Amino acid sequence: MDNIYTTFNQIKDRHSKEIFLKQHSKVIWFTGLSGSGKTTLASQLEKELFNLNFFCQILDGDNIRSGINNNLGFSQEDRKENIRRIAEVSKLFLDCGVILICCFISPTNQLREMAKKIIGKDDFLEIFVNTPLEVCEKRDPKGLYQKARKGEIKDFTGISAPFENPENPFLEIKNTNPNLDQTIKEILDKILPHITMNQ
User: Fold this and answer.
1) What is the pLDDT of residue 172?
2) Pairing state between β 27-31 and 124-129
3) DSSP state letter for 189
4) Of 25, 36, 90, 106, which residue is the catalytic one?
5) Cα 171 to chain center, whole Å?
6) Does residue 92 surpass a pLDDT of 90?
7) Which helix (H) or strand (E) holds 59?
8) DSSP per residue over 12-31, as a string?
9) Residue 106 catalytic?
10) pTM for the whole thing?
11) Whole-angstrom Cα distance, residue 49 to residue 43?
12) Burial (CB count <10 Å: 0-12, 13-18, 19+), residue 99
């Protein structure tokens, strides 16, 4: 670390990039069980924000684990490192003026607090997709719960590993409502004041 010299002070500052993009960059952090609907909501939210001329990027758990974090497993230590790396990458997007939409189970309050501390509490908009376990299991789009119940997947959140509900999320979504448009409107109404740049 003694031989590392950062150049952040030589890079165009975040505010200038936000002005260029006409938006305030934030990290919208979706958390919830596997199958809760995080990715579905995030994808639809990105489309709606794009239509409103906001510039966004999605980071999703599966995509990150198949790329930048493909050397990590699901032990407690690896889960922590997974979220730490994601939070550090999120900071880079913030500095580019981008609105980042993250979809990660991030199962414990400790992990989410770590992410919030790295990203910055004012830039961390945590959305808890509160879908009951039985609903997630019934959906089970990847067949993961079935495998976890058979013991084929160890340390699976909600079955053999805990999920702690966020203590004070920016927004809580009860994702049993089949009306996706209504749910997205609820999210938009909450986040738009935080990302809209006053002219």
Assistant:
1) 96
2) parallel
3) H
4) 106
5) 13
6) yes
7) strand 56-60
8) PPHHHHHHHHTB---EEEEE
9) yes
10) 0.90
11) 10
12) buried
Q: For the chain, give the percent of residues with pLDDT over 70.
A: 93
Bridge partners of 196, per DSSP, are 23
Point out the least confidently predicted range of 33-37, 50-54, 119-123. 33-37
Which of 107, 106, 134 is closest to 35 using CA atoms?
A: 134
pLDDT of residue 61: 78
Top-level class of domain 12-192: alpha beta
Tokens of 83: 């979220």
Q: What angle do CA 60, 64, 65 make, to 5 degrees?
A: 120
Nearest in space to 33 (alpha carbons), one of 114, 120, 142:
142
* Cβ 102 vs Cβ 86: under 8 Å: yes
The counts of H helices and E strands in the chain are 8, 5
Could you give the residue ranges of the DSSP H alpha helices within the chain? 14-21, 38-51, 61-65, 76-95, 109-119, 133-139, 144-149, 180-195
> Hunting for tokens 């966004």 — which residue is that?
56
Q: Please tell me the number of Cα atoms within 13 Å of 12 on its side-chain side.
A: 8
pLDDT digits (tens, 9 = 90+) for 57-81: 999 977 888 888 888 888 888 889 9
